[in-house]
Structures are given as structure tokens and as C-alpha cells.
Amino acid sequence: MKESLMDILCDPLDKSDLDLEVDERDGDEIIEGRLIGSVTGEVYPIEDGIPNLLPPDMRDDE
Amino acid sequence: MDESTETPVKRTYDRIAEHFASTRAYPWPEVTAFLRPDAGDAVSRLDADATDALAGGAAPVVTRSTRDAGGPSSVGLDVGCGNGRHAESLSAVVGRVVGADVSAELLATARQRGENRRTDPRPHLLQADAASLPVCSDAVDVAVYVATLHHLRPRSRRVASLSELSRVLAPDGRALVSAWATAHDRFDADSGFDTTVPWTLPGGESVPRFYHIYDPTEFAADIRDSGLVVVGTAVSSGNCYAVVEPGE
Prior knowledge:
The complex is a heterodimer of chains A (about 60) and B (about 250).
Chain A: E1 18-26, E2 29-37, E3 43-47, E4 50-51
Antiparallel strand pairs in A: 1-2, 2-3, 3-4
Chain B: H1 9-22, H2 29-35, H3 48-64, E1 75-79, H4 85-91, E2 96-101, H5 104-117, E3 124-127, E4 140-145, H6 155-168, E5 169-180, E6 193-200, E7 206-213, H7 216-225, E8 229-236, E9 239-245
Helix pairs in contact in B: 1-5, 2-3
């Protein structure tokens, strides 16, 4: 995902802001990292460039 | 309850993503009529009433957005983007496109399509639930939510997803919503119902998909109950359509 997308993303649970933590980037593209709910503390992984912003109860168990 | 009817839509589409995506090359003419009513041949096979109902809502979106009509900061959202064919259509009318889908495997096909076709702007892809969108309120100028609503269950989640659409739309924003209709050739019913429609993979394996088939009156009622305001409706090619704007 592009870092510039942060201005329109929010926590799916309570619509509060997300904080971005980057492990790997390629220019302005975030490849690996996580989005963290600033209020809920929920961690949403960014894997292979795509953030998984599903509510925690809809995530894969695998 | 039969296990097949309980398969989450996410798992279903992760399973069939590659084959499903390969069979979905072109945007629906109804979506093109909504986004680009002047597209000529792409919408010419629609009947005139449907074209009027769909286009009447959308043409203004792109030209009247108070923020940035079609410019670099305008935002398009495709909820249930699948292989990205309609996100690609949004790229023609807005500066930034977000494609959201519950299935990571479908998102992978959307990314590949964007790369292969050099879609510009390239859609931003998110794995997300239609009933709890991770998108800020009032952030979206134009949205499409097509052929996705009917996969959610029960009704409360479908209505919740429509309320989410209302929340994310900017005050001048518009969206196109569609779902399979009882008017479709394969059904013989006058009122809405839940069913399972299999997807057959090339090897012959059948993967069940949940659908709620809408009758047009029920479709409009669910939209109104969500807080969205209906601007126009149509039944075309066996689908219910509504052009909507956000509620107060």
C-alpha cells in the first residue's frame, strides 16, 4: 500500500485513526508492516503490500 | 445446518479466485453507464430506461464534486472489487481508486490485472469487510458496490454494509449498488430468498456460494433502512440496481 493512503484509512472497528509501522518499503510503497488502531490497539498486518483490515473475528485462523 | 451454506464468502472466493477472475474481463455496461454515460457502444445495449436511471445519478458526481472534480484528490471506492475490473473503470473518472475485497486471493488477481493493464491510477487494494469498512467518513466521491451485497448474511449485515457506504460517501458523493434479482432468468420467484449457487471449477469441483436474491421492492427497502437515499433504480440483466447518495 502507498503511505499516501493513510489519510483515508481508519480502524474498521471504531473508525479512529491508524498508526503505521513499516518493516519493509519500496519507495512510497509499504511492502511489510502493520496498521495499529490508535484507540483499539488492534494490529492489522500489511503483507506483500496489501493491508488486511478485516475485523479480527473475520481473519483466517490458518 | 448444511455445512455448505455456512462457508464464509471469504473462503469461497479464496478457493475459486483464479478461475473466477479469468472469466470476468469486462466491466458491466450498467457500471459504465453510471460512471461514463457518454461511453457510447459500451452502454448501447442497455435499455433506455435503465441507462437514464443509472446515468442520471453518476454524471454529476464526476463534474460537480465540490472538492476536486475528477482531479488527483478525488476518491473512488469499489466495495467487493474482485479482480478489479470496476476499480479499473473508476480509474477513468477519479484521481485515486481504492479496491476493497474480503478475499486475499481475489485481491492478488486484481493486483496482477492492474499491473498487466498498466491501470492509471493503479488501484489501492485493501482486504476489508463490506460491513465494517476501514475508510474514513465522507472520504469517497464515487463508489460502486456491485454483485457483492447479495453474498452477505443475514439481512442485518447487508443493511450495515449499506450504512457503511452512506458513512464513507462525501456529502456530494454517489454510489451504484447492485444485487442479483428475482427477475433473473434462472429464478422463478416473486419475493426475495436465500440460496446457494455453485461455482464450478475447471476440474469439475463445485464450490457453493451463498446468495440472497432480492426482489426489487425489498432491495429498495434495505437501502432506505440503511440511511442511504435512493436517487434512481433499475432492473437490468437480472440484477437490481440503485444509484444512491448519503443520508443526513
